[in-house]
Amino acid sequence: MRSTNKNDGASFLPSDYVRGKGQARASMFAILLFVLVLAGVIGAFTVNHQRWNRVREEQKLVAASFKEETAKIEQLKLLEEQRVVLTDKAEIVTALKDRVPRSVLMGEIIRGIGDGITLTDVELEGDRVRPPPPPAATKGAVKSIGVSGVGNGKDQEPTEPKVHPPKFVFSISVDGVSADNDDIADYLASLKQSPLLNDVELQYINQTMIDSVEYRKFRITMSLSSTADASKVAGTISVGIDGQTIVSTTEDIED
Description:
This protein is α+β, with helices and mostly antiparallel strands and about 260 residues long. It has 4 helices and 8 strands. About 40% of the residues lie in helices and about 25% in strands. The strands form 3 sheets. Strands 1-4-6-5 form a 4-stranded antiparallel beta sheet, covered by helices on one side. Strands 2-3 form a two-stranded antiparallel sheet. Strand 5 and strand 6 form a beta hairpin. The radius of gyration is 50 Å and the shape is rod-shaped. Mean pLDDT is about 75; it is low at about 145-150, about 240-245 and about 250-255.
């Protein structure tokens, strides 16, 4: 006979046991998920920590490189300041050195004198060129903002005035007499060809009587070139005396 029992196929286990076993499986699954999430968080933290360590190491390297380059920049600034100081000293020494000895200048003035010209007076005047005054400090100047903010309220120390090399402008006037105007014209042309002289001009020619003889009295003015160098004059050589080098004309050596 076929059984007609309604409980065929149903579990014979108690319902409390079945319900507890289901809760245990759910708890294990939740614990497994928690462990997986915790492992992911720990792994992410470890990776980020390693990355931050690498970033800090790179930051230290960059800071060390920056400090080294800063030291190099400060050294370059110090060398630049020394170069400026040495350049200023060289300019002062060059300005104090007489590049045109007066003997060479006189030789250049009398070089073109003809037989009919007699010089009566040669005058050399020098005027020192004053450097422009330093700009006056403006009142209420805006202070610069540094890394730590606005300045500490103290005024900046005034910079030392720069020592300018002395510069001179020399003017020369030559007075003389001649019996012929052509000799004066030739002498004027000779002075204009000199590499030491600039602005050679004939100021006047007047008639005068000397011992009942008629002459032409004249005056020529000129200026010494700012770039004048005695070595450019033909017939000059450098002569060493006691460790010093002077420039002289060949006529002086022959004498």
